Automatic annotation (TrEMBL):
Entry-linked InterPro entries: Epimerase_deHydtase (IPR001509), NAD(P)-bd_dom_sf (IPR036291)
Protein name: NAD-dependent epimerase/dehydratase
Superkingdom classification of source: Bacteria
Keywords, alphabetical: NAD, Signal
Leader sequence segment: 1-22
Span of domain NAD-dependent epimerase/dehydratase: 15-217
Annotated CDD domains: SDR_a4
């Protein structure tokens, strides 16, 4: 049990971002709990002192009523599924509605919900134009969470994340394992953000909550994916992968969506409202810092 004054984070989906936030808050004395998809990962996360349940809908759906009743803050980082949409609201809507101690709910979405804007700037007021099914599911999940916010005075905040990179998940890893690609699509601009800055934004929102608010979580410098790979190769002093025309690249639907939704994403709101000063304002700063520790 948590004490009456201790903060407790419950994270639906202790993946890359969820685990990073949980680790940061746990280091500040918070109690941490959440879900993961496998017993193996449950054992690993539990060893860190976290209270973790396996949640892999529809096969495994735990009883989380007691955990949510104790939670003061809830992060949702599980993407919606084709067959049922947002799995957290589908299975735990009632438990969340009755969780009276919850002060803050964060839902992690994606800047993909904006769709294609021919490289023009978008901000949080731009109408959504999701183009691909997974983007459409995200947009619907956003609407569902916002309906909860306005109908129940629930403290929901939406965070639209750009491409996330950081330790263990970056171009150096792809270059090393041979999966890096340089795809040529003239004019394409894409946003990204270091995981440390995602955590910083989430912590800033927790400290300064604004229920019902939407935030773009992205760095200052949109850039083409090919130039990011080129910079990483320059740092490693290796020859970059050959340039492949977009039309000839073998990409999944998810991969294609990055190349067919061209936009620059404005991040002014996280600075003006949350007081965030990005540690890594552009991909060069982020990759340079990662390279210093890369082995």
């Amino acid at each position: 049990m948590t004490s009456s004054t201790q903060k407790k984070l419950f994270c639906f989906g202790l993946g890359y971002v969820g685990s990073a936030l949980a680790a940061a808050l746990h280091g500040e004395g918070w109690a941490v709990g959440g879900t993961c998809r496998t017993p193996e990962k449950q054992r690993t996360l539990s060893a860190a002192g976290w209270s973790v349940a396996v949640f892999d809908a529809p096969a495994v759906v735990p009883d989380l009523a007691a955990a949510l009743e104790e939670a003061t803050h809830v992060l949702v980082s599980i993407p919606p599924k084709p067959e049922i949409g947002d799995v957290v609201r589908h299975h735990f809507h009632d438990a969340l509605e009755s969780a009276r101690q919850v002060e803050w709910i964060g839902y992690l979405s994606t800047t993909g919900v904006y769709g294609d804007h021919d490289g023009n700037w978008v901000d949080e007021t731009t109408p959504l134009m999701p183009k691909f099914p997974h983007q459409q599911r995200r947009a619907e999940a956003e609407r569902a969470w916002m309906r909860l916010a306005y109908s129940a005075s629930s403290p929901v905040h939406l965070f639209r994340l750009a491409g996330i990179y950081g330790p263990g998940r970056n171009p150096f890893v792809k270059i090393q394992n041979g999966t890096a690609q340089r795809i040529d699509k003239p004019g394409l601009m894409f946003g990204r953000v270091h995981v440390d800055d995602v955590v910083q934004v989430l912590q800033a929102s927790i400290a300064r909550p604004h229920a019902g608010r939407v935030y773009n979580v992205v760095d200052n410098i949109p850039a083409s994916p090919r130039e990011v790979i080129q910079h990483a190769c320059d740092l490693l002093q290796v020859k970059p992968p050959r340039l492949v025309a977009f039309e000839d690249a073998e990409l999944s639907e998810m991969g294609k969506s990055f190349y067919l939704t061209n936009k620059r994403v404005d991040n002014h709101r996280i600075k003006s409202e949350l007081g965030v000063k990005l540690r890594y304002p552009g991909y060069r700063a982020g990759l340079d810092a990662l390279f210093a520790d890369f082995k």
